[in-house]
Input
Amino acid sequence: MDSIDLEILRLLQNDARITNRHLADAVGIAPSTCLGRVSRLRSAGVIEQYTVRVHPAALGRPLEASLAVRLQPHRQPYVDAFVDHVLAQSETRTLYHLTSPDDYIIHVAAVDAADLQRFVLNELTSRPEVALVHTNLIFQQWPGTPLLPPGAKARDMRPAIGGNQPELGRPSS
Output
């Protein structure tokens, strides 16, 4: 990957809806060349998918939490059933498998505290393989910078200003 590919990746990570023409203009290449580069990045598995990030509060789920879950026993049939169950829940935003005292972190979005409690009690602690759940409320979150290979330099690592992403809050100065 050269600096143009890295810049394409940075721009697409900031706004996956950017048109090919605007993307080509931003990196200084012809639209047909840009389309070919994006196709090559997709074929190589660098670009996995294009997604839409939604604001949970706008969908009636303003309470977000990180749930640390420990399984017992931690055996494949239990793990598979647990993962399938958690991913089938509408509250689940992301599921991470860890190497720590806790086995999983689940990022969830709930309607309110009662809905979060219902989720923890009915969907997690009621399962025989779940030994422990720690709940941490998420007050604010900020997206990171676009992901590039180690040591890679794009033209400008800062996220696009005024993009299509909702403002989730800024740290006060």
Q: What stands out?
A: The chain has five helices and four strands. The two ends are 38 Å apart (CA to CA). The helical segments are 3-14, 20-27, 31-43, 76-87, 113-125. The first helix runs from residue 3 to 14.
